[in-house]
Amino acid sequence: MSVGELKVRDLSVHYQVQHGGGHAVLRAAEHVHFDIPPGTTLGVVGESGSGKSSIARALMRLVPAAGGQVLLDGQDLLQLEGAALRTARRKIQMIFQDPVASLDPRMTVEDIIAEPLRSFCPEMDRAQRHAEVLAMMQRVGLAPEHLRCFPHEFSGGQAQRIGIARALVQKPSVVICDEPISALDVSIRAQIANLLRDLQQEFGLTLLFIAHDLATVRYSCDQVLVLYLGRVMELASREQLFANPRHPYTRALLDAAPIPDPVLARSRKAEPLRGEIPSPMNPPSGCVFRTRCPIAEARCAETVPPLIAKRPGHEVACLLD
Known about the structure:
Elements: E1 6-19, E2 22-36, E3 41-45, H1 52-59, E4 67-72, E5 75-76, H2 82-88, E6 92-95, H3 109-120, H4 126-139, H5 156-168, E7 174-178, H6 186-203, E8 206-210, H7 214-220, E9 223-228, E10 231-237, H8 238-243, H9 248-256, H10 262-267, E11 308-311, E12 314-316
Parallel strand pairs: 3-8, 3-9, 6-7, 7-8
Antiparallel strand pairs: 1-2, 1-4, 4-5, 9-10, 10-12, 11-12
């Protein structure tokens, strides 16, 4: 078994919410599956409300899963409790979307980055933790004089470097990146994306990279999973998905992506995606995308399309493909 191999099987995430004076089930993710080979990156894309962050939090055991398996190096994280779960959590860490909100404002940079070492490496003494923290800070582009500073003294990009250092200081094999660059200035996004790519190569990391920016996904990811209303619409290699998108939702996302060339942008005749994503508490019958799909037929309301391999490494959930 390779170190850092992540396999997700039939994962569902449900929330009990108050609705209409009673309780209802919000189905954030339904029967999601994917594999991430060691040392590679899976990009997860989809509109807000599609369930991307719920999946990330379920993988981390921050929210309960309604069903399925999360296999890290063959071990099902969803079945672990107590000391076994604590040991497994050393292998998987998370980088959050809002770099400032994810850092404790009362802690110094050194204390923030050292916190995982105090929790998971109690055998380390203070001097050893200090050395590890300092080495990781320098690796992510932070200076030694930042050790005693507090989060509010940093820009968004610097704060995200602190979050990255905290996630990597204990040497995990898998890192969940929940939109790690979307809250940053455009000029900083490429720097952080390049840093993550360099760190992945250096440490052999397996990454799950959640994003809205398809340009970043195209640059950073080996595979791409397209999610809509908690269901997988398409799963393919980066090359296959961008060269030959098969699902209507994938094509709509690609058509909506901005083009930096103004001449090409003016000549593009893409039809914008109509309507808004439905409520996950009351999803459409059959194919959940049918209410916004430009090619939907009557049978799309009757049958949930299975995710089928149309060619090796390219799976699509569409009755009309």
